Amino acid sequence: LLSSLYLSHAVKVSAVEVNTPEEMFVENGTDAKLPCTFTSVEVISSAASVSWSFQPEGAATRISFFYYSNGKSYPGKDIPFKDRITWAGDLNKKDASITISNMQFRDNGTYICDVKNPPDIVVKPGEIRVRVVEK
Known about the structure:
Elements: H1 2-11, E1 15-19, E2 23-27, E3 32-34, E4 37-39, E5 49-56, E6 63-69, E7 72-75, E8 85-87, E9 98-100, E10 109-116, E11 121-122, E12 126-133
Parallel strand pairs: 1-11, 2-12
Antiparallel strand pairs: 1-4, 3-9, 5-6, 5-10, 6-7, 8-9, 10-12
Keywords: Disulfide bond, Glycoprotein, Immunoglobulin domain, Membrane, Signal, Transmembrane, Transmembrane helix
Protein name: MPZL1 protein
Domain Ig-like: 14-129
Protein backbone atom coordinates (compact mmCIF):
# COMPACT_ATOMS: atom_id res chain seq x y z
CA LEU A 1 0.00 0.00 0.00
CA LEU A 2 2.77 2.44 0.86
CA SER A 3 4.53 1.96 -2.47
CA SER A 4 1.36 2.65 -4.45
CA LEU A 5 0.74 5.84 -2.43
CA TYR A 6 4.28 6.94 -3.12
CA LEU A 7 3.92 6.32 -6.85
CA SER A 8 0.71 8.29 -7.16
CA HIS A 9 2.32 11.18 -5.30
CA ALA A 10 5.46 11.15 -7.46
CA VAL A 11 3.45 11.44 -10.67
CA LYS A 12 1.71 14.67 -9.60
CA VAL A 13 3.05 17.55 -11.70
CA SER A 14 2.31 21.16 -10.93
CA ALA A 15 1.51 23.52 -13.74
CA VAL A 16 1.80 27.17 -14.60
CA GLU A 17 -1.54 28.75 -15.48
CA VAL A 18 -1.26 31.53 -18.05
CA ASN A 19 -3.97 34.20 -18.28
CA THR A 20 -4.53 36.56 -21.21
CA PRO A 21 -7.56 38.38 -22.62
CA GLU A 22 -9.17 36.44 -25.48
CA GLU A 23 -9.37 39.39 -27.84
CA MET A 24 -8.05 42.95 -28.05
CA PHE A 25 -8.78 45.84 -30.40
CA VAL A 26 -5.87 48.23 -31.01
CA GLU A 27 -5.89 51.47 -32.99
CA ASN A 28 -3.59 51.60 -36.01
CA GLY A 29 -0.34 53.46 -35.19
CA THR A 30 -0.69 53.21 -31.39
CA ASP A 31 1.24 51.16 -28.82
CA ALA A 32 -0.39 47.99 -27.51
CA LYS A 33 0.35 46.39 -24.17
CA LEU A 34 -0.35 42.67 -24.50
CA PRO A 35 -1.25 41.56 -20.96
CA CYS A 36 -0.10 38.14 -19.80
CA THR A 37 -0.17 37.04 -16.16
CA PHE A 38 0.41 33.63 -14.65
CA THR A 39 0.10 31.60 -11.48
CA SER A 40 2.64 29.07 -10.25
CA VAL A 41 2.86 27.21 -6.96
CA GLU A 42 6.66 27.23 -7.27
CA VAL A 43 8.87 30.14 -6.29
CA ILE A 44 9.77 32.21 -9.37
CA SER A 45 13.31 31.03 -10.06
CA SER A 46 16.11 32.38 -12.22
CA ALA A 47 15.26 29.52 -14.61
CA ALA A 48 11.83 31.05 -15.30
CA SER A 49 11.34 32.24 -18.86
CA VAL A 50 8.73 33.78 -21.14
CA SER A 51 8.44 33.37 -24.87
CA TRP A 52 6.03 35.17 -27.20
CA SER A 53 5.09 34.03 -30.67
CA PHE A 54 2.75 35.34 -33.35
CA GLN A 55 0.47 33.59 -35.80
CA PRO A 56 -0.59 36.03 -38.54
CA GLU A 57 -4.25 36.08 -39.58
CA GLY A 58 -4.82 33.18 -42.00
CA ALA A 59 -1.32 31.67 -41.55
CA ALA A 60 -0.66 28.11 -40.41
CA THR A 61 2.69 28.72 -38.73
CA ARG A 62 3.81 30.71 -35.71
CA ILE A 63 6.75 33.11 -35.58
CA SER A 64 8.71 33.30 -32.31
CA PHE A 65 9.60 36.95 -31.78
CA PHE A 66 10.46 37.54 -28.12
CA TYR A 67 12.16 35.68 -25.27
CA TYR A 68 12.75 36.81 -21.67
CA SER A 69 14.94 35.02 -19.15
CA ASN A 70 17.24 35.86 -16.23
CA GLY A 71 16.23 39.54 -16.21
CA LYS A 72 17.10 40.04 -19.89
CA SER A 73 14.87 40.39 -22.92
CA TYR A 74 15.77 38.97 -26.31
CA PRO A 75 13.56 40.54 -28.98
CA GLY A 76 13.76 38.84 -32.35
CA LYS A 77 15.75 40.65 -35.01
CA ASP A 78 13.42 39.75 -37.85
CA ILE A 79 10.48 41.57 -39.33
CA PRO A 80 7.60 42.18 -38.54
CA PHE A 81 8.42 43.30 -34.97
CA LYS A 82 12.01 44.51 -35.31
CA ASP A 83 12.72 47.30 -32.78
CA ARG A 84 9.05 47.49 -31.71
CA ILE A 85 8.95 45.15 -28.68
CA THR A 86 9.44 46.21 -25.06
CA TRP A 87 9.30 43.99 -21.96
CA ALA A 88 6.47 45.34 -19.78
CA GLY A 89 6.28 42.55 -17.21
CA ASP A 90 7.77 41.62 -13.86
CA LEU A 91 8.20 37.89 -13.25
CA ASN A 92 8.27 38.42 -9.46
CA LYS A 93 4.76 39.88 -9.78
CA LYS A 94 3.78 37.01 -12.12
CA ASP A 95 3.44 39.40 -15.06
CA ALA A 96 4.81 38.42 -18.50
CA SER A 97 3.35 41.32 -20.52
CA ILE A 98 5.01 43.03 -23.48
CA THR A 99 4.35 46.25 -25.38
CA ILE A 100 4.42 46.48 -29.18
CA SER A 101 4.81 50.02 -30.52
CA ASN A 102 3.27 51.45 -33.68
CA MET A 103 0.77 48.66 -34.33
CA GLN A 104 -0.03 48.11 -38.02
CA PHE A 105 -2.80 46.24 -39.87
CA ARG A 106 -0.26 43.51 -40.72
CA ASP A 107 -0.01 42.85 -36.95
CA ASN A 108 -3.52 41.30 -36.98
CA GLY A 109 -3.40 37.75 -35.67
CA THR A 110 -2.94 35.63 -32.57
CA TYR A 111 -0.23 36.33 -29.99
CA ILE A 112 0.88 33.43 -27.80
CA CYS A 113 2.40 33.94 -24.33
CA ASP A 114 4.24 30.89 -22.98
CA VAL A 115 5.64 30.90 -19.41
CA LYS A 116 7.99 28.29 -17.95
CA ASN A 117 8.92 28.16 -14.26
CA PRO A 118 10.80 24.90 -13.64
CA PRO A 119 9.87 22.52 -12.17
CA ASP A 120 6.40 23.80 -13.09
CA ILE A 121 5.47 23.10 -16.68
CA VAL A 122 2.93 24.96 -18.77
CA VAL A 123 -0.25 23.15 -19.64
CA LYS A 124 -1.65 25.73 -22.05
CA PRO A 125 -0.09 29.01 -23.20
CA GLY A 126 -2.23 32.15 -23.25
CA GLU A 127 -3.52 33.34 -26.63
CA ILE A 128 -4.70 36.84 -27.53
CA ARG A 129 -6.42 37.55 -30.81
CA VAL A 130 -5.41 41.08 -31.77
CA ARG A 131 -7.38 43.17 -34.25
CA VAL A 132 -5.85 46.42 -35.46
CA VAL A 133 -8.56 48.94 -36.32
CA GLU A 134 -8.70 52.41 -37.93
CA LYS A 135 -8.23 55.38 -35.58
